Write the structure tokens for this entry.
Amino acid sequence: QVQLVESGGGSVQAGGSLRLSCAASGFTYRRSCMGWFRQASGKEREGIAVICFSDFWTHYASYADSVQGRFTLSQETTQSRMYLQMSGLEPEDTAMYYCAAAPSRTDLRGRVFDGSEYTYWGQGTQVTVST
């Protein structure tokens, strides 16, 4: 049974930082693509950061332009846990943040931010950035 559990959301002032965590279970973490998506109220879901493992040792990460340089992916593969370090937060970053998994997918280049490519989703964690 695949499970994705996010944590780490909260409220922060503009310019601040948060670290989101996604604990994954029920599939082979290092044979998958894992991503962070967000959805602000009244807006469409947006893919913002994705990591894909092409084999046990090799992976690549992709970032949306809206977060490039401010957000950073990291992971603890032994614990199947993925993190999203968010710095320089802006009010426009306010959204529900979701962890998503595409088990057994190792290359989503060209469509890494297409939510339909991901089979499993977490329950989400809210991030609110105030001025």
About this structure: The chain has a mean pLDDT of 93. The radius of gyration is 14 Å.
